[in-house]
Structure formats: structure tokens, C-alpha cells
Amino acid sequence: MDLQQRINAFTKLGAFLCQFTTNGIEKDDSVIANDLFFDGFKHQIKLAKEHNGWFTEKNILFSLESWSKALTNNNINLWTSKYNFNIQNPKTVAIIMAGNIPLVGFHDFLSVLITGHNVLVKQSSNDKHLLPFLAKYLEIVEPEFKGKIKFTEQKLEDFDEVIATGSDNTARYFEYYFKDKPSIIRKNRNSVAILTGNETPEELEALSNDIFRYYGLGCRNVSKLFVPKGYNFDAFFNAIYKWHPIINEAKYANNYDYNKAVYLMSEFDMLENGFMMIKEDESYASPIATLFYEHYDYIENLQKKLLTDSDKIQCVVAHGFSDDEIRFGETQNPQLWEYADNADTVEFLLKR
Fold first, then answer.
1. From which domain of life does this come (predicted)?
2. CA-CA distances (angstroms) from residue 230 to 175, 222, 295, 321?
3. Using one digit for the tens of pLDDT, what is the confidence trace for 310-352?
4. What is the pLDDT of residues 57-73, one digit of tens each?
5. Which of 43, 208, 301, 352 is the most buried (most CB within 10 A)?
6. What is the residue extent of each domain of the chain?
7. pTM reported for the whole predicted model
8. C-alpha to C-alpha distances, 273 to 221, 226, 290, nearest whole angstrom
9. Which residues have CB under 8 Å from 110's CB, separation 6+?
10. What is the CATH number of domain 3-188?
């Protein structure tokens, strides 16, 4: 199977996913193998929702829609054009996936297969319904994928390289356990936004999507703001109000109530609007329903701080702050060539 065959297969998968969007689910009879897979995938979405209370239909469909937009022929060709694909002896690459948001490990899965390697997937129990079904779709539209994709719930065995994602604690275990294997080990990271006070209402409203999408559970979700001294949060609170129905969702509301009680009993200073609390804190990782903030004096000093802490940060959302900043509202729409932790997965997979 050559590179073009693999690109064509993932392009067909993208067309299949186009039927599942945040505007609804609508069958397209022109999609290849749809009679075999459309109703079955609707059922897998239902199972994913029932299995994990954080995986609402809206969040699942947002993830599927994002991947459908990424998996176009033009996008995949643009992504792969910078590499030299010349794998003579395919390896088996194990992937240990997180389960914080739907299909969170899909980019690693895609990267391994697009480079011509075989993949051995160990999924999180929190996100185990969607990817195996999509893998079956790939095997139907490109039969040469058969035998190259394997899922396991057992101990990982018979693999050559590994990509593992987890917490800082599990990362220490991964680093020890896989010390003799070429690896990418990912730890906890969080995303931040830099505000100046000159943001438009549209920018702040877009930022609310970066904060609340997936309930803030992803590493690309903004969990902390950097604001100038004397910053007035009124415009920010007005802009995020569109997300206020989130408080009607039980798991989010339980976390809001719990964290609010903790802050009140501890007599922490905070601001809140009935569905979100903001608290001054130097940490990057904030609890659900809470956003941390920190004041800065000079942009130059903040740039130095974030450079020093770069191993803790996934995305920097800003306007005119740095060359690698992300626009407000775009953290959950990464391009194929935007890699987690800035570690080029495809380069890693091709260099051996």
C-alpha cells in the first residue's frame, strides 16, 4: 500500500464523518459503504454517550465534525508533502490513549497509519466505542489496512515504538516502563489566554469556546488567563454568558457546586457568575468550572515566563503576543500539522 492509497482511505473516512455534525446527523447516500456503517456509527455514538457522562452528543459531534474538516484530500496532501515517506520495514507502534475528550488519540492513530506503520492501540476505558468502529470503516474502504490495526485491553506486547499520553504521574511510569523503546511520552499540559483589555466582544466570545468546549477537559482548553493589572472582568463575563446553560448539566453543576464550596470555606477571593468562577492563582491547571488568572506588568516579562514554563503549556491564545499564538476561538480546531506538545509525530515515526 503506497502513500496515495492511505491518503485516499482517510479522505473517504473524512467524507463519512461529514454526515455527523453539530447541526445534526444526516445520511449522504453517496458516501462509500454507508449502508454498512451509518446506522452502526449512530449506535456507537449512543454507546459513547451512555458510557461517559462527559461525552455529550454535542461534544462528540463537535469532535467528529472537526475531524471531517481536517480529513480532506487537500489537507492531508498539504500535511504529508513536507515529509519523505520511504518506510521499507514497517514497525508496530503502540499508542496508549487518554480518554478526556472524544477521539483524543485519533491524530496519533492517523500519524502511525499514514506513515505506513502498523498500530497497536490501548484505549482509555472512557473512550472506547468510536475509534474501533472507524478503524473497521478504513479496512473496508482500503482492504490493505487489514492486519495493520489492532486494539488490545491487555498488557502491550510485540511492539517497536510507543506513543503514550497521560498525567505527570503516569508519564513517570511510562518513562520507566518504555525506557528501552523509542517513544513520545506526553504529560499534563494546559492552555492559556493573554488579554490586554483591548479585545473586541467577538474575540472574548470566541475565547469562551476555548474555555467551555468539552467542559474544559482538554489540554487545548484555556484554563488560565493572564491579564494586566487593574483589568476589569465585566466585558469578559458578558462575553461568556452564552455558555450559561452549561450549569444545567449535572456533572458540570456538581463540580461547580463542590469547587465553589471549597473556595468559600477556604475564604479564597474569587469572582463568579452562576456558572463559572475565576480565581487568582499561579497554577496552570484549574478545576472544572473554574478559571485561574494572573496579573502581568510588561508583555516582555510575560513572554519570558511562558517560555520558561513552555513544558506546561499546550496553546497560547492571544492577538499580537507571539509568532506561535492561536487566534481566539481556535484551540479546538487544530490543523493536521499542529502537533501536541510541539513534538512532530510524523517526523518521529519516519526517522527510524
1. Bacteria
2. 43, 21, 8, 19
3. 999 999 999 999 999 999 999 999 999 999 999 999 999 998 6
4. 999 999 999 999 999 99
5. 208
6. 3-188, 190-317
7. 0.95
8. 20, 19, 11
9. 10, 336
10. 3.40.605.10
